[in-house]
Inverse folding.
């Protein structure tokens, strides 16, 4: 009962905060699916294209730079060789609707936390209010998978079908990210994953593969926020990588860190923390006490801001 009450409170807050198309999105929650347990793709395969309709990126960190200004979120409900959405099925539709609510909760959480550092941050993500932010796609390939082998396939869908420049202009936005939603059940063992600029200079269009069910649970709003943080440059904290050391990972484990980039909690309210370390890596600050104390790597904003890095 408590949980149901919390859900409706969340819904109420959401509806109160969300407003017309083009305005700031929206809300928050918890559970324990640790983001994307597999490492992000590290391939630097070329993504050059001579398509005249393609957005010309200015080299500022892919399709999403700093967690600042306005960000357009495009939702793509995708069928692949192993999963599909049955739009005539009541339970599929309920699940599909929940993805929008969770997306709004994540966008609100990001907005309110980033708001501690900037007064200029917002998301446009409600495809009910803004129908041009929703797409329904069919793929013959297997896209629910543990690797990044299909990056180009999904990227090309975006290039061919979505007028990204038009959306950026229409909404007056600086950033655009894409969330692919796959209708997976609890038995799915792959957790959500993000293909972001930090995965390699070949990643210019930044998108997330969200799985509605994973590892015995519905994917919670905290996972949405975690993945979206990646697109702005936040690294995972639960394994050592090019910027995070093993000793810092060990430290996070020792204190059972609540940092959203370390673990994501279940529930409809995001109770994870947005730390000063996260703020630094998503470009909201120029320095971080934690980075200095632990000698962690520099943010992509500091390393590559405004520059296109050749592969
Ligand atoms: Zn992650």
């Amino acid at each position: 009962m408590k949980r149901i009450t919390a859900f409706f409170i969340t819904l109420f807050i959401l509806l109160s905060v969300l407003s017309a198309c083009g305005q700031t999105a929206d809300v928050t929650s918890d559970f324990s699916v640790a983001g994307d347990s597999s490492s992000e793709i590290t391939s630097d395969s070329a993504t050059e294209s001579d398509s005249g309709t393609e957005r010309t990126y200015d080299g500022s960190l892919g399709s999403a730079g700093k967690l600042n200004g306005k960000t357009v979120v495009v939702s793509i409900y995708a069928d692949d060789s192993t999963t599909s959405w049955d739009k005539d099925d009541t339970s599929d539709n309920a699940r599909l609707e929940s993805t929008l609510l969770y997306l709004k909760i994540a966008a609100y959480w990001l907005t309110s936390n980033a708001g501690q550092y900037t007064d200029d941050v917002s998301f446009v993500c409600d495809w009910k209010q803004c129908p041009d932010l929703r797409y329904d796609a069919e793929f013959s390939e297997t896209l629910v998978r543990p690797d990044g082998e299909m990056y180009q396939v999904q990227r090309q869908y975006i290039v061919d079908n979505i007028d990204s420049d038009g959306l950026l202009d229409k909404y007056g936005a600086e950033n655009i990210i894409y969330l692919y939603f796959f209708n997976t059940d609890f038995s799915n063992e792959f957790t959500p994953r993000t293909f972001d600029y930090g995965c390699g200079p070949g990643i210019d269009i930044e998108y997330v593969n969200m799985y509605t069910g994973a590892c015995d649970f519905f994917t919670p709003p905290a996972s949405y926020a975690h993945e979206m943080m990646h697109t702005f440059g936040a690294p995972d904290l639960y394994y050592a990588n090019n910027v995070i050391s093993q000793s810092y990972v060990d430290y996070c484990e020792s204190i059972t860190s609540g940092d959203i980039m370390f673990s994501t909690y279940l529930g409809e309210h995001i109770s994870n923390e947005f730390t000063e370390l996260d703020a630094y890596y998503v470009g909201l600050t120029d320095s971080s006490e934690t980075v200095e104390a632990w000698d962690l790597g520099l943010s992509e904003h500091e390393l590559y801001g405004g520059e296109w890095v050749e592969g």
Remarks:
- The pocket of zinc ion is lined by residues 35-36, 226, 230, 236 (CB under 6 Å).
